[in-house]
């Protein structure tokens, strides 16, 4: 079975590669191999009643399948070079932004029309942040919401399914260089192709490392972001979220001069558990449909850790911290901010008596037993800083879920075509370490498809 192009991974990177390849040259024989399930068969077994905690499915339905890690995400497509990845370093800032706008147009034409594009341009919030030692980053954000994001994916799949071949439940084991292309091995099956696009996201990070080792592709150690997810009454942040939806705010701590930032803000959303390579961490999302919204807003507060020689395993460091929280809490731990600063563990009673109703069933515990002091101190400092622009953030009942870890893939050595030293082998999306977001991953997919068709 020989194909012109094989795409590994059906996340946003893989989907947009397939979409653009087919649009530009419908004659190309394209195969997408995906270890997860088709969109409609993706279902996390946690129902909040019989199953309340992660049961470590073989492939996590939240992270894998058509739509990738983005399928049940909040569908926030940030159009910016300020965060979400460093695609612009490879392809230039102008082209990166143009591609993100192009992706936005495709989303709009596949069910996203009518959704709102928020922008930081001209907002007074920037000044208020600056006056309180906080920096608001510039961005436009299209908020599809989990529900519309799902519809967009359904529509894109419906359009592609007869033009591009999809094989779900197919975990690729090995990529080998052969004459004129690549042999792709999945279990006992072999597929060959002239060009291969690898777009395996964060859930494919470990596998990506073995591929790079096998094919002698240089990688460099990246960073890991560690922190907590904050949940509070939506009204406390409403002046920010009504105008900007998502505000990416950075704070530089007094004590260690570390940077702490807000990440993935979900107005009226829910906190969720996610499983990456068997480790349960926390995340969040929200719906566009008001009937599915909650009374709470959640966002992450993250501290970036970069390591220098001789230590290279930044993800291993993040995993160890997440494992510690899994060991103590059996999964995600939740703690009231008031309990954290008083140095005591939260319990069910105090959480139930509080004014914030948790949207995720997590084990009450003590995050100070999990997070390194320097990280925890930074988070506490930032909560007080945010309290100055959104009074109430530092209330005792504010909930902190831990741990939130953003694993970054090793950054793979790529040229300006996002091509490895092996001609015709491209690595895109979060799996390349170049992107960390829906819009950047999708844009990298379009970019590579155009490179392939133009050759
Ligand atoms: C709960 C949640 C909410 C999020 N919210 C947002 C948001 O609002 N905005 C935002 O910008 N980003 C968000 N993100 C991040 C965003 O989803 C990712 O940045 C984006 O999905 C990356 O796309 P990708 O195609 O590179 O990788 P992924 O989406 O991770 O897709 C990779 C695919 O490859 C498959 N795969 C992996 N290894 C193999 C293999 N060996 N063989 C076959 N298939 C394989 C996986 O099953 C997966 O489906 C969120 C993530 C999560 C988990």
In terms of topology, how is this protein built?
Blueprint lengths: L1 E7 L3 H13 L5 E4 L42 E4 L8 H4 L1 H20 L3 E4 L5 H7 L2 E3 L3 E4 L1 H16 L4 E3 L6 E5 L2 E6 L2 E10 L6 H10 L4 E2 L2 E11 L4 H7 L4 E4 L6 E8 L3 E7 L2 E7 L10 E11 L7 H16 L3 E4 H5 L6 H6 L9 E2 L8 H17 L9 E9 L3 E2 L12 E3 L10 H17 L1
Helix pairs in contact: 1-12, 3-5, 3-12
Bound molecules: flavin-adenine dinucleotide.
Flavin-adenine dinucleotide (FAD) binds next to helix 1, strand 3, strand 15, strand 16 and helix 12.
Q: For the terminal residues, how far apart are their CA atoms?
A: 23 Å
What is the β-strand count? 22
Radius of gyration: 21 Å
Query: The biggest beta sheet, please?
Result: 8 strands, mixed
